[in-house]
Amino acid sequence: MRTKSLHTVALVFDEVELLDVMSPIGVITNAGRTWNFRPFKIELAAETNGPVTTASGLPLAATRDFASDSPIDILLVPGGYGARRVATSSAHQLWLRSAVARAEVVAVLGNGLLPLAHAGCLATLEVAAQPELAADLAAVEPTLRVRATDAVCVSGKFLSVRTGARGLELGCEIVARSFGAKLAAMVAGTLGIAWAGAAQGLEILQP
To answer: What is d(CA 191, CA 200) in angstroms, rounded to the nearest whole number?
Structure first.
C-alpha cells in the first residue's frame, strides 16, 4: 500500500454543485484517520485563487489557480450548472487537458463530463451519465459511450457517476484504487456507505 499523500485537486467554478465536491472529499479525507495518516492532500483549483459561489449559495475558496505546476495525482471534476458554463472556456479546456495527462485517477460527477468532453479528454471512453446529458455529450464527442447506470463506471483511469448522490461510492472507489480495497471497505463501513466493492475488501479483512 502507498505511504505518501496523494495530491488531490478538485476543480471548482461558480455554480458548482456543492454535493459533487464534498461527497467524495468527505469519504477520502476519512481514510487513514485510524492511523493518523492523511492519504489525500486536498486542494481546490479555479482559474484564479479566491472564492467561488456554489449552486447552494455557499462559497468555496480556491487556493490553487491554473498557473500552478504542483503535482496532480487525483483529479476531481464536479458538475452543476456551472460546469456547462465553463465547458467552452478555452482556459478551462487547456487546464483540463494538462491536468488529465498528469493525473493517475480522474473522478467525474454529472455535468463535470461536459468540460472534459469539450477539452477532448473523453474520446472512446465509457462514462455514467443521465440521459439528458448523454445527448449533449454525444454532440461534442461522438466516440464516447454512455452507460445508463448509477454505479461507478470505470474506463481506464476515469471513474464517473451520474449524480452527486453517488459521490460517496465514488469516494470509496478512489480510496480502493489508490490504497486498496481493504482501506476502502473500512471507510465504507465506518461511514455506512453501500459501496459495491465492500465485499471484496471485507474478504481481505478476514483472517
So the answer is: 17
Indicate the pTM of the whole model.
Answer: 0.93
Look at the block and give the residue holding cell 461558480: 14
What is the distance between the alpha carbons of residues 187 and 53, in angstroms, rounded to a whole number? Answer: 30
**DSSP H or E run through 202:** helix 198-205
- 57-65, Cβ contacts within 8 angstroms, sequence gap of 24 or more: 58/18, 60/12, 60/16, 60/18, 60/21, 62/12, 64/9
Strands 153-155 and 158-161 come out as antiparallel
- In a 13 Å sphere around the CA of 80, the CA atoms on its Cβ side amount to 22
**What is the gyration radius of the CA atoms in the chain, in angstroms?**
16
Contact between residue 136 and residue 122 where contact means Cβ atoms under 8 Å apart = no
Portion of the chain with pLDDT greater than 70, in percent: 93
pLDDT tens sequence across 48-106 = 999 999 999 999 999 999 999 999 999 999 999 999 999 999 999 999 999 999 999 99
